[in-house]
From TrEMBL:
NCBIfam families: isochor_syn. InterPro entries: ADC_synthase (IPR005801), Chorismate_C (IPR015890), IsoChor_synthase (IPR004561). This is isochorismate synthase. Belongs to the isochorismate synthase family. GO terms for molecular function: isochorismate synthase activity.
Length: 427
């Protein structure tokens, strides 16, 4: 679809919203304000957002999903009447999004909640959004506190998804064969697990667990996709672009001293450094056209999470064009951290060997404000609630495969990456 066709198509679908942002007494526990039904969340170290309800929503699919969503957001913000007492990144109108990994199949979404509570640097605000003049925000905050505590999940059982462990290891072996034959350099292969619960999951439970146990990660929930990701695809704040690239993983032991030795071996592992280099290069190359300068550290650091350690690189640049955070995310997706190198061959191999639809797993997830500021993580370490049956979920994890990957070790790594979300689904 051409840009102008997209514009014409959207013009009459964009609601005229009225939004009001006011500062409220500081609310250090955002998690206590999570919605009981279909919560929206983006939280790290007690800061971020929770959203309730939907004042507007876009559902979109296909290769133009990012362009259509960007156009919708710029039209919606242009048409809105906003009174914003704070005027900082994340105040005023904010949309939360989650995008499909693949062009086809998969659905992507942008949601503008009716009420957003935001918190940053010890300051809390409430934004109310409606098609009518909104209620004063402070009264909205009182109404958000749930009257019931989160319900622990009941009787969750896990089963293989598209492939058994052995079947997935065989897919990894086939990927290694193709890499060694020179068809591609790196591919990220993922697998899914199915979880079935005795009753619909109260997402407030796993979200609090994830946020408390993985404070270094961004805990998110957008239309039934939830998790805690350690990887920041791109953040844009007042012209400063940053990205945290991860690739290269080692499982943790229960012994701190041994973990230090493992971290040192990860930092020297040529297999992991190679895998990491592909991922960093893909992000730096995609950001280059949009930034006047980019700082790319020469070597990665080791990011310690409770279950695994990753090689990590933080990139920073200065935006030189008018791209929004969502447009930058679109330019970066799919990075070699979740797809491979070269991208087109890796996508083909993923489609052929994984035997599943990734849905919104490994796609950008995050938020954008009216000025284009925002944060887009990669939807990793997550579960997707079934649209038709809230007792069923799919869990995902993947691993970067390079020439000397060992299938059994990759399977063990994928299991380790599933630990946070599996634990969050236990009582
Ligand atoms: C694909 C995932 O993780 C990605 C792959 C990594 C790796 O292979 O070392 C590390 C972090 C992520 O970029 C996942 O968690 O599902």
């Amino acid at each position: 679809m051409t840009e102008s066709a997209i514009r014409d198509d959207l013009a009459d679908r964009v609601p005229r919203l009225v939004a009001r942002t006011t500062q409220v007494p500081d609310e250090p526990d955002l998690l206590a304000l999570l919605a009981v039904h279909n919560p929206t969340a983006w939280i790290r170290r007690g800061e971020g957002f929770v959203g309730h309800g939907e004042a507007a929503r876009l559902e979109v699919a296909g290769p133009d999903r990012f362009a259509i969503a960007s156009r919708w957001w710029s039209q919606l913000t242009a048409a809105a009447a906003v009174r914003d007492d704070i005027q900082e990144p994340g105040t005023g109108l904010v949309a939360f999004g989650s995008f499909a990994f693949a062009d086809v199949p998969g659905h992507s979404t942008l949601v503008v909640p009716e009420v957003v509570v935001g918190r940053r640097a010890g300051r809390t605000w409430v934004t109310t959004v409606s098609a009518e003049p909104s209620l004063p925000s402070t009264s909205a905050l009182g109404r958000l506190r749930a009257t019931t505590p989160p319900c622990p999940p009941r009787g969750v059982t896990f089963a293989d998804g598209a492939l058994t462990g052995a079947g997935w290891s065989a897919a990894v072996a086939e990927a290694v064969r193709r890499i060694q034959a020179g068809q591609l350099d790196k591919v990220v292969l993922a697998r899914d697990l199915l979880a079935v619960a005795k009753a619909p999951i109260d997402l407030r439970w796993p979200l609090r667990r994830l946020a408390e146990r993985y404070p270094v990660c961004w805990t998110y929930a957008v239309r039934g996709l939830f998790g805690a990701t350690p990887e920041m695809l791109v953040r844009l704040e007042n012209g400063l672009v940053t990205s945290r690239v991860l690739a290269g993983t080692i499982r943790r032991s229960d012994d701190d001293a041994h973990d230090l030795a493992l971290a040192a071996s990860l930092a020297r592992s040529s297999k992991d450094l190679e895998e990491h280099e592909y991922a960093v290069r893909s992000v730096a190359e995609a950001l280059a056209p949009h930034c006047s300068s980019i700082n790319v550290p020469e070597s990665p650091f080791v990011l310690h999470l409770p279950n695994v350690m990753h090689l990590a690189t933080d990139l920073a640049g200065v935006l030189k064009d008018s791209s929004t955070s969502l447009e930058l995310a679109a330019a970066l997706h799919p990075s070699a951290a979740v797809c491979g190198t070269p991208t087109s061959v890796a996508l083909q191999v993923i489609g052929e060997l994984e035997r599943m639809d990734r849905g919104r797993y490994a796609g950008p997830v995050g938020w954008i404000d009216a000025a284009g500021n925002g944060e887009w993580g990669i939807a990793l370490r997550c579960a997707q609630v079934d649209d038709h049956d809230p007792t069923r979920l799919r869990l995902f994890a993947g691993c970067g495969i390079v020439a000397d990957s060992i299938p059994e070790a990759e399977l063990a790594e994928a299991q380790a990456k599933l630990v946070p979300i599996r634990d969050a689904l236990s009582p």
